[in-house]
Amino acid sequence: MKILTPTFLTYVKVLLIVAVVPAIVGFVIVLAERRIMGFMQVRLGPNRVGPKGTLQGLADLLKLVTKEDVTPARAEKFVHFLAPVLAVIPALTALAVIPMGPSIRLARHVSTPLWVADINIGLLFLLAITSIGVYGIILGGWASNNKYSMLGGLRSAAQLVSYEVPMGLSLVAVLLMTRSLSLVEIVMRQDRMQLWFVFPGLLSFFLYFVSGVAETNRNPFDLPEAESELVSGFNTEYSGVKFAFFFLGEYAAMIIISCVAVTVFFGGWLPPFGHVKALSFLHIVPPFLWFLAKVGFFIFCYIWFRSTFPRYRFDQLMALGWKWMIPLSLVNIVIVALAILWTPGRTDGLVRLGWLFGALFLLMFFLAKLRQALARRDRLASEPAGTRQSALKA
Amino acid sequence: MSGVIDVSVRVPKKLTFSQRLYLPEIFGGLAVTMRHLLKNLIRIRNLPTILYPEKKRDYSGRFRGKHILKTREDGTLKCVACYMCAQACPADCITIVAGEHPQISYEKYPVVFDIDMLRCVYCGFCVDACPKDAIWMTRNYELAFFNRQEAVFGIDKLREAPGSEVKDGYGYRPYYPGDGTVPPTDASTERINPGDGERAGMRIHGTLPAYRPSAPQVGGVESRDESSEFRGKRSLS
Ligand code: SF4
Ligand code: SF4
């Protein structure tokens, strides 16, 4: 088995990522998104192409590829071409450092880890490379020579600048726990500490994921492509394959955000409660599948958010970013740091912090529920008898 | 109090405590969509979506679809080319060219009777206007064309083929109580419940009996209106 050298295997893995991720985006995620959103909105979603609509991705692909690729007459030709490429490549590049599973054995003496590269600045690399993706959007908006596109690009720039900060800061809190930027090491450490970082880092995770949704320009933060205001935002002047690239870039960015959320907060490829003896049967499932399932869940969350929340107004978006997310993430760093100092060298402090977060969350929830119930009772009492009945009948 | 206009003022509702906490409402919203997802996944047949080309909603007997030109017992058009319908038409989409009818009591007949289906607003005024009850409407709403010329329906497409079934049945039409005919059903009696979607009980296309006029129809006499000599002269304005 001379051929299975590490270098060769790396090439294979890179090729797999480049080939498989777009396919997954086109055939699985988009279809899932459209059908799930359909069901959430009490309709069927695409169900015509292939059994139950499973080949919809193929139809969409054919449509996008055969469409005319229009470049506006007065557009900046080269930048107009460059922008969609810039949107896709960084997102695919970032996948290189995502650890998708521990080593697997290919042959007798050959085993390979399920990541392309484990670099010691992994997380930093991720943040850096994914923020290049926004250049695609900004340049695309600028190069189209279209006011709407321009506004979309500008919005995207402002949004990115605002939400990179809480995203980075929320990850800093995790770095305090891991003391490593290597994503593999982060997962290993969660294994050793027998603790997923989402537990003490509930607030971090929350901040991270909200900023992540904002980073990927997805609802409710999809202002750069707000249809009701900006036609289609930065991609107004794009069609055909270039549009497909933007599309792919957006979904690849979603995958990245989900992958990082899983790796940093949800133990990467580790099964849940892997250290509890009674649940050791969970180890039967291959680690890669655990990883995939978790990432799938976060993609589902993206879809779920999209069909639930209306879009923010731009000032609300900025207010949320600067007045809430950034201060909260700073406070969060202090809290996590204090919890680490509470019991130096051990994880007890972090566990206690986790319980505290959980308790606070539940308390708030029950308070809100209580308050809601009281309000409903008051409303029912204040209404004249029978109004509700007749309203129901009408 | 003359001169004072009573304007209703909308005071925004004060947010409750839980609403101001923001997060519970967010999770509440997520719960709503999740509930819908699960409910609709489990009971997919209850979705109100009708899978259109296979299954069709049965519209009311007063549905205003494609027009139909009624014929006499000998198969000629009832229309006497009086231009009433063209006059009544708000969309100005009826083009009639009159010819002299050999039978003196009819005086006139339409040599050309065109309705531009793209301009028609399906208001049914032409049906109301017609003194001869010569123009009715059907429930056929599947009017798709490849070009604008095709959208102009001439007599060949509008006249009722004697003896053959009217596609989708008659829709909006004149009705005189007491003449022994069945009144067109009112839309309100044809209630379609939300959730009828893919259920077995859904009204499948054509289950309602098509309306049949009391007079028996006698089949095909070749009438002069098929002649094409005036075709070249008609204006499509
Ligand atoms: S339905 Fe109305 S618009 Fe259409 S032809 Fe008759 S009168 Fe004109
Ligand atoms: S109103 Fe009736 S009779 Fe007169 S032209 Fe129109 S269809 Fe013919």
Can you walk through the features of this model?
The complex is a heterodimer of chains A (394) and B (237). Chain A has two domains: 68-342, no CATH class; 345-394. Chain A is 67% helix and 1% strand. Chain A is built from 14 helices and two strands; from the N terminus they run αααββααααααααααα. In chain A, strands 1-2 form a two-stranded antiparallel sheet. In chain A, helix 2 packs across helix 10 (240-265), helix 8 packs antiparallel against helix 10 and helix 12 packs across helix 13 (348-382). Chain A is globular. Chain B is an alpha+beta fold and 237 residues long. In chain B, the strands form two sheets. A three-stranded antiparallel β-sheet of chain B has the order 2-3-5. A two-stranded antiparallel sheet of chain B has the order 1-4. In chain B, strand 2 (94-100) and strand 3 (108-116) form a beta hairpin. Chain B is elongated, with a radius of gyration of 26 Å. The A-B interface holds A 36, 39-44, 304-305, 307-309, 364-365, 367-369, 371-372, 375 and B 16-18, 21, 23-24, 26-27, 29-30, 32-34, 36-37, 40-41, 44, 47-49, 51. Bound molecules: iron/sulfur cluster (SF4) (2 copies). The site of one iron/sulfur cluster has 14 residues of chain B, from helix 4.
Short description:
With 394 residues, chain A is an all-alpha fold.
Short key terms for the protein model shown above:
heterodimer; A: 394 residues; mainly alpha; two-stranded antiparallel sheet; 2 strands; 1% strand; disordered C terminus; B: 237 residues; 5 helices; 5 strands; 10% strand; binds iron/sulfur cluster
